[in-house]
Amino acid sequence: MKKNLQLLFNECLDNATDEELQAIKQLLDGVRRKQTKDNGSFIGGIYGMKREMRDGKLEVTMPITPVIYNSLGIVHGGVTATLIDSAMGTLANIVLPDEYGAVTTNLTIHYLAPGKGEQLTAKATIVHRGSKTLVIEGSVLNDDGKAIAHCTGSFFIFKRKNNSTNN
After folding, report:
1. Can you give the pTM of this predicted structure?
2. Does the pLDDT value for residue 150 go beyond 90?
3. For the chain, which domains are there?
4. Average pLDDT of 33-60?
5. H helix count then E strand count, the chain
6. Looking at residue 163, what is its pLDDT?
7. E-strand spans in 24-146?
């Protein structure tokens, strides 16, 4: 496996443009962030997500890079959805006791503007907290604070089999 990966890596590196070299670096940096537990998932690591609680809301930021562009040169809508789902799901899991977890059961997203600029910020707030579900609202903002997406999500609460947390 390592030998095949090394061959593929060398081939990609030898033929890479500057943009492709930046993408390879971002992917490898993301794997390293996962290995060092700076991020809890490969998605968070590769996309360079950082989180912070502010005034009862969870904020997750992500730099805009060519890795997340669609063919039009703007942030891919699926990446925007991943960012807001990550913010809302992380908030759901932060507010629950350690022996419980939550997973997305429904996500409704409205795209309002294209993703452009240097960074996106997703903000998530709990709308309803029940014994079996959470409803969370979120928005994604660009550098100027302009909303590019609005989202609501439902999250199913379950009892974990063990007490490990993998947020």
Report:
1. 0.88
2. yes
3. 2-159 (3.10.129.10)
4. 92
5. 4, 6
6. 53
7. 50-54, 57-63, 100-111, 119-129, 133-141
